[in-house]
Amino acid sequence: MIKRRPYFRNSLDMNSKVQVKVLRRRLKLSNVELAAIVRKTGNSISAISKEAAKT
């Protein structure tokens, strides 16, 4: 059995394909763009959204 980490609403788990896919579609970003933003801002969904809005 795979043990999952607790789910936090305000942070993105880059290991979760579903979370990444949903956020990429919502923000209309490519995999590369999302990865660059996460490296720059961290895994906070609000910070990612703000940075994506700037570009």
What's the topology here?
Layout: H1 17-27, H2 31-41, H3 45-54
Would you kindly provide a written description of the structure presented here, covering whatever features stand out?
With 55 residues, the protein is an all-alpha fold. It has helices at residues 17-27, 31-41, 45-54. It is globular and about 40 Å long. The N and C termini lie far apart (41 Å).
How do you describe this structure in short?
With 55 residues, the chain is mainly alpha-helical. It contains three helices and no strands. The protein has helices at 17-27, 31-41, 45-54.
Q: How would you classify the helix and strand content by structural class?
A: mainly alpha
- Number of contiguous helices: 3
Tell me roughly what share of residues is in helical segments: 55-70%
Radius of gyration: 11 Å
Number of strands: 0
List keywords for this structure.
55 residues, mainly alpha, 3 helices, 58% helix
